[in-house]
Protein 1
Amino acid sequence: MGTNPTRFVIIGNGAAGTYCAEQLRKLDVACEIVMIDDEPYTLYNRVSLPRYLRGVLLEQRVYVRDMEWHEKNRIDLRLETTARQVNFEEKVVHADPGGDLRYDRLLIATGGRPNPLRCPGADGAPYLFNFQYFDEAKGMVARIPESKVAVVLGGSFIGYELTEAFAHRGLETHWLMRGPWFLRRALDKDGGEVVSLLAKDAGVHLHYEEAIDKLERSNGQLRVTGTAGFSTTADLVGVGLGLTMNIDVFQGTAIETNVGVRTNEFLETTVADVWAAGDVAEFYDVVSQRHHRMGTWDNSLNHGRHVAKNMLGAKEPYVEVPTYASGMFNSNISVMGVTTEEEPDAEALVEVDYEGRNYKRLFFLGDKLVGAILIGKMKGRKKVLELISSRAAIEDRQSVFGLLAMPEAVTKAATPE
Ligand SMILES: Cc1cc2nc3c(=O)[nH]c(=O)nc-3n(C[C@H](O)[C@H](O)[C@H](O)COP(=O)(O)OP(=O)(O)OC[C@H]3O[C@@H](n4cnc5c(N)ncnc54)[C@H](O)[C@@H]3O)c2cc1C
């Protein structure tokens, strides 16, 4: 007598969900895989959206998987389908449309949604965009040819991506951020200054300690009034104000949630046969020895592949130093491990070279290197990553800069005018 194949249900077809499905199929040819998502698209690369917005990548190149791939791999993908409720005792997801969906093992890979701008005039304002979904990127791409002036609010990576794309498109671009510099919790003033220099090199107008106070419609444009004196009439307004994790469906259930869905190092939630992966997973990180969330493509992809093995019966901890790499105008930025953003007590050492637009910040907890941020030259990045991963005791903190091969002449310089 044969046994029934295991039925896996995945909520969310982003990187975490799709790479989990792919791995499940590789490791178990007989299993059933159902994946639901409320968006209308097969997996697309959110990391490619900035290049699409910049106009250097065609729309078709943003997609990573098509429907044919899902059919070939017998992954039953149901788009424009929302998980409204999960009954963990009965092991049923209530999908809309579609009704009840039975599962043996469930993956929560629901990611996050962007926080909207809240100020007078923002509700339903035309030409005001967040930047998380393909549809938002398409809306901005359609508007850009009619635009001359753009305003961006947000002092983190999405704010940067919007600013860079608008400036690249030749728009007069105003970048507003509430803090005194970019990534204010992870970079110090020196790092903020290097980013300012790179932004100014790209022709961007910077407005620190400024936010949007109100928006008013004005002859097919938006009049933007700032909280600290800024004012302009813009054709396009983009905001990057962080994400709220999509955990509403699980609140008040036996699934433990905090900012995201809490898991252990195996990405198991507090409910049997339910795992979480990707942006939404607030997982126990064995490298930094704490719970945290990582909002990166590589983390979601690796989580997806890893969790599939555990969903099939393995019990392997997820061990990876979190990393985030991005362009930074005509340069690059790389964030590795834990910074003062997640661990305010971490002690930091800095080397900066304003002229070369290079910056290195190392984060230590006790005698361990736990994280680093590099802007500009990336030489030695891998070695630093290995050092973070090894958790080796470091006696001479300054010696880590040697790995990054900083020329000796370049030491901490005075802040330029
Ligand atoms: C513009 C942009 C640029 C980025 N740049 C970089 C970069 O340079 N480097 C980097 O590492 N990372 C970058 N990221 C972050 C990276 O793309 C994300 O961390 C990653 O894509 C998250 O994947 P995920 O599968 O965890 O979640 P998501 O991709 O968010 O997928 C979750 C899916 O679940 C759906 N969903 C949610 N709730 C439900 C429900 N109840 N029912 C059904 N479906 C639901 C959502 O609509 C979504 O489609 C960028 C992100 C953006 C938006």
Protein 2
Amino acid sequence: MIIKRARVYGMCFGVRDAIALAGQVAAQSGPVTVLGQLVHNPDVLQSLREQGVDVAENINTVRVEPGTHYVITAHGISDAQREVWSQTGATLHDTTCPLVQKAHHRLREFVAMGLHPVVIGKAGHVEVLGLTGDYREATVIETESDIAKLPPERGLGVVSQTTQPIERVRDLVLCIRLLRPTQALFFADTVCQPTKDRQNALRELCAEVEAVIVVGGRESNNTRQLVLAAQSYGVRAYSVEGPHDLHAEWLINVARVGLTAGTSTPDAVIDAVEQALMQLSAHTRLAA
Ligand code: SF4
């Protein structure tokens, strides 16, 4: 069995920089707490803990204490939330990815133009909550059925969650235009370039393999999107967090398997999955 990696895959600069900064803060200032899921991988989380970085996964229940250091994740937060946490007297270290900041900036511009704020993305995802958190009236569009929630007359200012598939975003924008032909619509493509690069590389990979393994966290949106995209290209696609999630039966009658990974997956985990695939391939051959 041939194992082929995607041309572009794995951890993006935004997540890499955020992990590095959390470690630096812990080394310089002592224990630090990350407000939310900085990264989904258990090995990375363990390594961060060993460096003195704790992760408070549920930001709604965490108590932000004065005189303590906290990290805002690459997903970003609303200005209102930043203000609340700033008022506590805690020290905030903001690792919001510049490409998430760009989405905030474009949405802010649209609102300043008097447009109704719209975010194409997954309702409840932390990045989407951050984008919409300053605009109580904002509408999140996840599927075509959400278009009915848009106000009937105001012009619309539309951005997207950075990790959405760009084709899906464009389709939804087209749907809005068709269903609301008289309403002004301004659209800013805020899907980030690393996400687009991974999606394009996956499309190329799927033309060459029968099955794809996507390495990434179960909670990771871009990992889920890579699996869905691979399935839409007609190949079998499986999501694993690490080598222990692989199943030999996935590889039966597979001559070429593709390997890719979400934007918060470290290289070491991808290497471990590749090694395990090689071993499974050898066993499958022996058993045949
Ligand atoms: S996925 Fe894109 S927007 Fe999100 S952290 Fe990575 S580079 Fe930044």
